[in-house]
UniProtKB/TrEMBL annotation:
This is 5'-deoxyadenosine deaminase. Residues 71-418 form the Amidohydrolase-related domain. One of its GO terms (molecular function) is adenosine deaminase activity. SAH is a product of SAM methyltransferases and is known to be a feedback inhibitor of these enzymes. As a result of this inhibition, organisms have evolved efficient enzymes to metabolize SAH via different pathways. The pathway found in methanogens differs from the canonical pathway, it uses the deamination of S-adenosyl-L-homocysteine to form S-inosyl-L-homocysteine for the regeneration of SAM from S-adenosyl-L-homocysteine. 5'-deoxyadenosine is a radical SAM enzyme reaction product which strongly inhibits radical SAM enzymes. It comes from Methanospirillum stamsii. The gene is dadD. Zn(2+) binds at H79, H81, H227, D316. SUPFAM superfamilies: Composite domain of metallo-dependent hydrolases, Metallo-dependent hydrolases.
Length: 448
């Protein structure tokens, strides 16, 4: 029997429990077509069209009134350290290396699985609220991350951030953590959550250890998530020590392939871009983090797109951003490219929206990222009644340049409703739990 969600009091918790056959009526697509969208109980979009509701009203368990909304694909955050929400505002306005080694790493030494669980719960809440349905996450205590993600209902590629500084015992320990995570995630059988391997960066993991990571990624057929060419110092040091650029070093150690998602790429040369293109590697662009940490150069989008490199978008962690709003990230990406490369036509609105959706899904290997029959129903409904969406000369322009996360009203991931008309179950509990967890982390650090 068809069920109309209770739009006045959002107490209908049954809505949020699982994927059910759903009909969204009268929503607008970015190309301004007014359509109904029908997806089945597996979360696969079956039909999109004007007025298909007559044909499918009987098939749908849930009907969502989409009038007054714009439907866009759910957003993909392809580089983050989710639990760093707990470090939001803890250390700002610093030089990157100093920020990491003097403030962030010392505090992270006190992290427990419980902190990571609550930090990730908060991150997922913030992401869902702002229309994000998937993340590519690198951090510690990743089994706790997996538990938080599973509860939130989003997609995630998860890796343990490997930092060895050349220490063999440390490598053994980090590989064990990785293997343990891979085994754990596979045993959970959640098709939305996948394991990856995460050598942190060429400056924290030396070439012989990068080789071990590359081999593991190849053997297990999993994503290799890393940081690449973020600062000039990293590139200069790499040239001095290894006689080649960090991208060339990744390639030499077998780390560059179509399974690679490398964050930043600010200081990539044209040759590096060509190499990435040849290997089919993906770059996750994080303009807010790059500008805040003054990396000094914007990722060369023009060279990357010319060399056919897939570029997706990410926020990075909340201590270098300091939020997880992908709308803010889209706008920043589009304007940062124009400003830095002095080109007013570079990275137009449509491309930045694809970067945040289909390119992200491609980088992470999910068959989603577009609202299209046969693909997973990862859908955000934005309110057209928000000032930033009025007037609607060009919906794509509004999404890229004027909307913020707060225009998102309803979020669906793999057919499951995660937020309905602004309501997310247990939101207050998550906020309370995460803020006491952040206090506990700082208390522990102060006691030492
Ligand atoms: O912008 C960044 N550059 C380099 N490392 C970072 C950045 N943001 C966070 N981390 C660090 O990466 C590790 C992930 O496991 C963490 O230590 C986190 O603090
Ligand atoms: Zn990062």
């Amino acid at each position: 029997m068809s069920k109309q969600p209770d739009t006045t009091s959002v107490k209908d918790l049954e809505l949020y429990t699982k994927t059910r056959s759903t009909l969204i009526t009268g929503t607008l697509l970015p190309d301004k077509r007014k359509v109904d969208i029908w997806y089945d109980e597996t979360g696969t979009i079956r039909e999109i069209g004007p007025d298909i509701s007559h044909a499918h009203k009987g098939d749908a368990d849930i009907i969502i009134d989409g009038s007054g909304t714009l439907a866009i694909p759910g957003l993909y955050n392809t580089h983050t350290h989710a639990a760093m929400t707990l470090l939001r505002g803890y250390a700002d306005d610093m030089h990157l290396q100093q920020w990491l080694s003097e403030k962030i790493w010392p505090l992270e030494a006190h992290l427990t699985g419980d902190h990571v669980y609550w930090g990730t719960k908060l991150a997922c809440l913030e992401m869902i609220r702002s229309g994000t349905v998937a993340m590519n996450d690198m951090y510690f205590f990743m089994k706790d991350t997996a538990r938080a993600v599973e509860e939130a209902g989003i997609r995630a590629v998860l890796c343990h951030g490997i930092i060895t500084f050349g220490d063999e015992a440390k490598l053994e320990q980090e590989m064990k953590a990785t293997e343990d995570l891979v085994r754990h995630i596979r045993s959970q059988n959640n098709p939305l959550i996948r394991p990856a391997i995460g050598p942190h960066a060429p400056y924290t993991v030396p070439p012989q250890h990068l080789e071990v990571c590359a081999e593991y990624s190849r053997n297990e057929d999993i994503i290799l998530h890393t940081h690449l060419a973020e600062t000039k110092q990293e590139v200069d040091d790499c040239q001095k020590t290894n006689g080649m650029s960090p991208a060339a070093l990744l390639d030499k150690t077998g780390c560059l392939s179509s399974r690679t998602v490398a964050a930043h790429g600010c200081w990539l040369t044209e040759d590096d871009c060509r190499l990435l293109g040849e290997r089919g590697a993906h770059i996750a662009h994080n303009p807010v983090s790059n500008m805040k940490l003054a990396t000094g150069r914007a990722m060369p989008y023009h060279h990357l797109s010319e060399k056919k490199v897939n570029v997706s978008l990410g926020t990075d962690g909340c201590s270098s951003n300091n939020n997880l709003d992908m709308f803010e990230e889209m706008k920043t990406a589009a304007i940062c490219q124009k400003f830095f490369w002095n080109s007013d036509t570079l990275l137009p609105a449509g491309e930045v929206l694809s970067m945040a959706t289909s390119s992200g899904a491609r980088a992470l290997g999910y068959s989603a990222g577009e609202i299209k029959p046969g693909l997973s129903a990862d859908i955000c409904l934005l309110s057209l009644n928000h000032p930033s969406m009025v007037p609607l000369h060009n919906p794509v322009s509004n999404v890229a340049y004027s909307a913020l996360g707060c225009t998102v009203q309803t979020v669906i991931c793999n057919g499951k409703i995660l937020m309905y008309e602004g309501y997310i179950p247990q939101e207050q509990e998550i906020i309370t739990g995460a803020s006491s967890s952040a206090t506990d982390l700082l208390d522990r650090a102060a006691r030492q």
